[in-house]
Fold this sequence. Notes:
This protein is mainly alpha-helical. The protein has one domain (6-184). The chain is 69% helix and 0% strand. Helix 1 runs parallel beside helix 9, helix 7 (113-119) crosses helix 10 and helix 9 (155-167) crosses helix 10.
Amino acid sequence: MKSFPEKNVINAIRDDKIKYGLEKYEIIMKEYRSNINVSKEKEFQKKFKGFYRLRRNESFCKEYFSFLQNNRRNRPIFTDTLTFFYRKFNKVEISFISKLFATIDENLPIYDRNVIKSLGIKKHDSALCGDAKIQKAGEIYNELIQWYTKFINTDEGKLWGKLFDMQYPQNNISSVKKIDFILWKLGSGK
């Protein structure tokens, strides 16, 4: 398991990008939990797309938010969901599907290039396509989930949560999201 200097973690947590991102994320999740119909609520969609940088065509976004709405109470399978969107739009949307999953269940991590970079997890081979790419993405996502599950219960993982809570004592997010924010910042290099 990769280890991070505490100083770097503290600096990441104190970064304004996390502060503002946390505010936006909590608004999105509060609205999602309020049971609004996210497939129709344009203001929610605008916030979500802005936060997650979801810049796709209207057809994709319509399907995406319908899927998010229709699976509120389900735990879809990651690779099945990737396949569903791949068959409709001919693109394997690994990061955006992980963000959809992390909205449905905030105890699931985000598969983001900054997070993957921070952890030193090897990305899928860019030469892969279609079903092979989906299968490899599923393996990496499961690896990511396993890493989070172990890390959160380590002394270092508990320290990260404590440091995050000290900086943002009023936060209302899961341990996984705290780690997501920190890893995202550490991997962004900015």
